[in-house]
Amino acid sequence: MSTEIIHVKKDSYLFLQGDSADAMYVIKSGEIGLFIADYLVEKMVSRVGAGELIGEMSLFDQLTRSASAKALTETTVVVLPYNKLREDLAKMPEWVQVAMKTMTMKIRSANNVVLNTSGKK
Prior knowledge:
CATH architecture: Sandwich
CATH class: Mainly Beta
Largest sheet: 4 strands, antiparallel
Number of helices: 3
CATH topology: Jelly Rolls
CATH superfamily: Jelly Rolls
Distance between the termini: 51 Å
Order of helices and strands: EEEEEEHEEHH
Number of strands: 8
Structural class: alpha+beta
Number of domains: 1
Strand content: 35-45%
Strand order of the largest sheet: 1-8-3-6
């Protein structure tokens, strides 16, 4: 399997909140901001850089993207397609799969709390 590399220009989006997902990404260089939004507010919840992984949550729960990924600088990422990763995940003990899905659900829930408390005192 060949490795796909994507170059993302500053202020461009790698993916958007609500998109269907088929891959996760390792950041080779640059910085990505992860943003969650509702109709009224957009909030950066994380800033990630070289060596970090993004887009992994949908691998475990098969839901849409929980956040948008926007390049804060010129950024290069390596694409890790879900189809191969799901094959590897299926070989792991069931408790590992349950643990990853549980952590993913907790992160999605935390994102909703952040959105629902934005601007409130």
